[in-house]
């Protein structure tokens, strides 16, 4: 009767380590790919929301009946990652010296790589006449005068605060000096009383010695 012998051979330690290394590389590549896909989808969603918000702000500007030069900014109430800025701006063309009113809408956000991205929309509305340009320049001058007045008031307030602070420090220093003088006077008085008491004791001893010697 013949006996069949089976020659079984297992993986060596080197082969097992090589297999684990290859699996690790493959797994890392798959994870990196998945992460990149997720970041790309997140960036695309943010970009779509930014474009939508910029269009909504532009539609709001175009629907306004009173057009004036101003800038307004804020953060989206539905997505705090989006910050927006919109308004009207007057630009002058150097070649013709003509002024035009432009409506603009800007939305900014940070992508997955922490880089600042922005969506900008512009719409040229109308050309300003000479009278409108003069009114705009007068308005700018009034605003600048108001800002200068606020700056002067702030400077005067800061000066008053500094003066009050210095006066408080001077009063406190004077109080400390008075306390030190009072303490020094008390120490001198106590020292004088101690010296007088010592002199009286010495005189008393001398008198006792004199009468004791006579006896």
Your description of this structure?
By secondary structure, this protein is an alpha+beta fold. The protein folds into 2 domains: 115 residues, 2-Layer Sandwich (Pantoate--beta-alanine Ligase, Chain: A,domain 2), CATH 3.30.1300; 45 residues. Helices cover 63% and strands 19% of the residues. It contains 2 helices and 4 strands. Strands 1-2-3-4 form a 4-stranded antiparallel beta sheet. The N and C termini lie far apart (151 Å). The mean pLDDT is 76.
Work out the count of structural domains: 2
Structural class: alpha+beta
Q: Summarize the biggest pleated sheet.
A: 4 strands, antiparallel
Using DSSP, what is the number of strands? 4
User: The CATH topology of the largest domain is what?
Assistant: Pantoate--beta-alanine Ligase, Chain: A,domain 2
Average of pLDDT: 76
Distance, first to last CA:
151 Å
Radius of gyration: 45 Å
| CATH architecture title of the largest domain | 2-Layer Sandwich
- Fraction of residues in H or I helices: 55-70%
Which series of helices and strands comes N to C? HEEEEH
- H/I helix tally: 2
State the strand order across the main sheet: 1-2-3-4
Biased composition (Acidic residues): 150-165
Transmembrane segments: 12-34
Biased composition (Basic and acidic residues): 166-177
Region (Disordered): 149-215
Outline of this structure?
With 215 residues, the chain is α+β, with helices and mostly antiparallel strands. The chain is built from two helices and four strands.
């Amino acid at each position: 009767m013949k006996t069949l012998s089976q020659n079984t051979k297992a993986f060596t330690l080197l082969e097992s380590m090589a297999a684990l290394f290859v699996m690790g590389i493959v797994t890392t590549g798959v994870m990196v790919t998945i992460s990149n896909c997720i970041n790309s989808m997140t960036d695309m969603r943010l970009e779509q929301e930014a474009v939508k918000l910029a269009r909504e702000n532009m539609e709001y500007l175009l629907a306004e009946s009173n057009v004036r030069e101003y800038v307004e900014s804020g953060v989206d109430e539905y997505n705090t990652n989006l910050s927006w800025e919109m308004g009207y701006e007057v630009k002058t063309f150097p070649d013709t010296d003509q002024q035009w009113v432009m409506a603009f809408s800007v939305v900014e956000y940070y992508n997955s790589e922490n880089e600042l991205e922005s969506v900008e929309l512009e719409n040229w509305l109308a050309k300003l006449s000479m009278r409108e340009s003069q009114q705009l320049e007068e308005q700018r001058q009034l605003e600048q005068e108001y800002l200068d007045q606020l700056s002067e008031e702030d400077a005067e307030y800061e000066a008053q605060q500094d003066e009050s602070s210095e006066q408080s420090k001077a009063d406190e220093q004077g109080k400390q000096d008075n306390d030190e003088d009072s303490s020094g006077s008390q120490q001198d008085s106590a020292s004088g009383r101690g010296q007088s008491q010592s002199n009286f004791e010495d005189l008393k001893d001398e008198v006792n010695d004199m009468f004791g010697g006579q006896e």
